[in-house]
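A reminder from the course coordinator: this example appears on the midterm review sheet, so study it carefully.

Given structure:
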């Protein structure tokens, strides 16, 4: 009886294993089977948009790598700011989330004086601000420095091309989104023009500028009795970039405390030097006239230094707020870590290498700059989806990459979009907008950590129809979210 009972248990176990093995392939097959209702819904969205020939869409299951939906998915298109996804992926893969950029002050101190120049040496920190320069200046003062003969800006970590490729397509644009770059850059290379009324109507207005010696100002703004501020500012770089001509006209009413305007700087390196000189003076250090560009004097010791915020955190400015300046600075750092001085072409080749190493075909990807601003970059929606899948599967990249993206209905450029999702915080995306381009790429996250859809929607040649394109992109994300998080049936 005992032997027979054992045989029965063995038979039962064997049958259970057989059923389990048979069920496993069926379960996998069910997961990999085409999702006909979702596909039909996505095709209906494309058809109703009226943009079938202007849009490319790719949806990929991050767990299986299987294409869920494709519409012109292999067509290279202008990604606008979705190009920042490529930059962020390469930065995390090549630099690492913990990588930071150093800024240092060098000089030889004798008897409280620095002669031969005090050098502000930068390595591409995109987050360097006036407050950081003040802290560096404080440390210089604590090192015993009382006088400085001149300021040297050492930006040799990058080459001298301060305007990223394609930025020249709008030469008269003075908004900060088109700011130039430099290995030493302060306040994202944008200055604030502060205009304040004079003591009474008819008197000249007052103007305040950080790094004032950099600006050659002609001020014809007058104080009016009432009305609204009406300021006209014309700026031009002088020969060599050592100064910027700023011609001001218009009026400001005596009834306001002042008005501020943020604009791009024309040449960041000279301006940064003047801002640093102000920081030194704020700490009681006497500074001689003049700012020059060049290498740090040989053998000059470091008097102060700081490290930037890590790349993994800096990427939030790119993914959530679509900051062109931060994207271009990190893009150039990627190249500079391969070749110094860092050139744009070094960055392009390094990013291509990162994509190839990740198993992504980069042969038809055109990389012009790191931000996606203006016209030049070209990538197929399917390649963007594959980059998203590769980032999601790499534990060294995934946490910071996903965290850098805008959360639909919550923050960044998606704070006011997709507010009626079936589950909170499940859509993490990068937006993109140009005059004739709308883009939306990212993830729809499932209930399990490994479950997600990676998707990319790129719409080109939609000038005058950007609203419809944005509605289509949001509709795709909404459909994917409702597929992964079906609403309870009453």
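Designed residues:
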């Amino acid at each position: 009886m005992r032997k027979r009972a054992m045989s029965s248990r063995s038979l039962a176990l064997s049958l259970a294993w057989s059923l389990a093995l048979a069920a496993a392939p069926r379960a996998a097959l069910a997961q990999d089977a085409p999702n006909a209702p979702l596909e039909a819904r996505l095709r209906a969205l494309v058809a109703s948009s009226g943009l079938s020939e202007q849009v490319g869409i790719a949806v990929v299951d991050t767990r299986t790598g299987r294409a869920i939906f494709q519409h012109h998915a292999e067509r290279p298109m202008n990604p606008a700011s979705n190009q920042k996804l490529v930059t962020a992926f390469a930065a995390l893969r090549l630099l690492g989330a913990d990588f930071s950029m150093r800024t240092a002050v060098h000089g030889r101190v004798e008897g409280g004086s620095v002669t031969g120049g005090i050098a502000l040496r930068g390595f591409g920190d995109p987050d360097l601000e006036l407050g950081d320069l003040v802290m560096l200046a404080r440390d210089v003062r604590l090192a015993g420095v009382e006088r400085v003969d001149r300021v040297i800006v050492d930006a040799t970590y990058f080459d001298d091309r301060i305007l990223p490729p394609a930025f020249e397509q709008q030469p008269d644009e003075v908004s900060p989104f088109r700011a130039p770059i430099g290995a030493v850059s302060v306040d994202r290379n944008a200055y604030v023009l502060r205009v304040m009324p004079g003591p009474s109507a008819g008197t000249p207005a007052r103007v305040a500028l950080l790094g004032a010696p950099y600006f050659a100002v002609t001020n014809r703004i007058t104080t009016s009795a009432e009305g609204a501020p009406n300021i006209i500012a014309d700026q031009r770089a002088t020969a060599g970039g050592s100064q910027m001509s700023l011609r001001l006209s218009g009026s400001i009413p005596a009834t306001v405390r002042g008005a501020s305007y943020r604009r791009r700087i024309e040449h960041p390196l000279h301006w940064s030097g003047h801002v640093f000189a102000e920081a030194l003076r704020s700490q009681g250090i006497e500074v001689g006239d003049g700012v020059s560009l060049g290498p740090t004097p040989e053998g000059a010791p470091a008097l102060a230094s700081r490290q930037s915020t890590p790349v993994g955190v800096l990427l939030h400015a790119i993914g959530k707020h679509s900051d062109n300046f931060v994207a271009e600075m990190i893009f150039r750092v990627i190249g500079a870590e391969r070749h110094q001085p860092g050139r744009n072409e070094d960055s392009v080749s390094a990013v291509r290498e990162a994509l190839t190493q990740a198993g992504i075909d980069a042969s038809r990807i055109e990389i012009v700059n790191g931000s996606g601003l203006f016209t030049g970059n070209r990538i197929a929606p399917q390649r963007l989806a594959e980059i998203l899948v590769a980032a999601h599967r790499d534990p060294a990249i995934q946490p910071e990459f996903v965290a850098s993206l805008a959360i639909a209905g919550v923050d960044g450029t998606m704070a006011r979009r997709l507010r009626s999702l079936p589950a909170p915080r499940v859509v993490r995306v990068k937006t993109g907008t140009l005059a004739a381009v709308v883009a939306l790429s990212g993830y729809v996250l499932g209930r399990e950590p490994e479950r997600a859809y990676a998707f990319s929607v790129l719409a080109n040649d939609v000038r005058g129809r950007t609203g419809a394109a944005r509605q289509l992109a949001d509709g795709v994300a909404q459909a994917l979210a409702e597929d992964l998080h079906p609403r309870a049936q009453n």
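Confidence is low (pLDDT under 50) at residues 1-31. Residues 33-98+310-484 form a domain with the Beta-lactamase fold (CATH 3.40.710.10).
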